[in-house]
Amino acid sequence: MSVLIETTMGDIVVDLFIKERANCCRNFLKLCKIKYYNLCQIMTIEQDYIFQTGDPTNTGRGGESIFGVLYGDQARYFDMELVPKIRHNKKGLISFVNNGSDEIGSQFFITLADDLDYLDGKHCVFGEVSEGFETLSDINTTLCDDKHQPFRDIRIAHTIVLDDPFGDPPNLPVPSRSPSPTLELVTQTNKIALDEKVNEDEGKTAEEIKKEMEQKEMHAQAQILEMIGDLHYADEKPPDNVLFVCKLNPVTTSEDLEIIFGRYGEIVECEVIKDRRTQQSLQYAFIEFKTPKQCEAAYFKMDNVLIDDRRIHVDFSQSVAKKFTWKKKKDDTVPTMASEIDIKTNNNGDLPCV
Description:
Alpha-Beta Plaits, EC 5.2.1.8, 8-stranded antiparallel β-sheet, Cyclophilin, alpha+beta, nucleus, single chain
């Protein structure tokens, strides 16, 4: 006379006290047989005390006995069996929950510690765990909030009746298959999902964790740059065919760099960045190659090379803010004097019209 309870934390086999608690065992066996407990949440876990389940509404206020299922609300609960007295004296005892009127329905708990004598006479023991104490230990150590509700979504996945000495009533609604989860259950967001890790860093090395933290920080910074307008979008990548060259000698020109770097491939654009006002070199430049392969070859060969008595530093360009703006159009001219502006006069020669 036993039942296999498959939970999302592991399996538990329960042996029932058929002789001592015949009515309770009949209630439990038939509820398991009609899959009443399938997908019920483990609502409460009190460490080294009990865990409680058996309410299909998952509120702690629902559930009914098999007699309520068969005969309606007037038979929702039935009286507890208290004779002979069975004490809550060891870990792994399964007991129906008293509804406050010395009656029981479908909700039950399993003890997680020995010597819980203060529960005697208040709730109804009707069986004990014979296999699955590792599962009980895992449930006992589950993280819970201040109301003893587990953060993880732990449920009874399935119940299998291994041995049933009681005959089935003629109108017992035994389903042909286990019930499917509802949309509300699948989309529930107030619990950690069954396939979601509680600790995201579990099984990772310190180096992997550090790398992930750096990537998250970089992504957060990119989002900030996107909000202030320095990036077109957060996932924008720098060009892979542009080199950044710095520590240049002020006398080094764009033409010099184009000749020196041109040996590694065709250069699309090469420019030493200058101060807008003084037109003096800012001692860094961008060099765009036609292909990333040419850019990579120049990077490996030219870093730390001496040019015009200065040892330069070469790296791949990390700038995306300048991706579309650093190039200088050679045919652009900015008129600075009145003589460069097309001035037309009217027939009388009075007022100029631009």
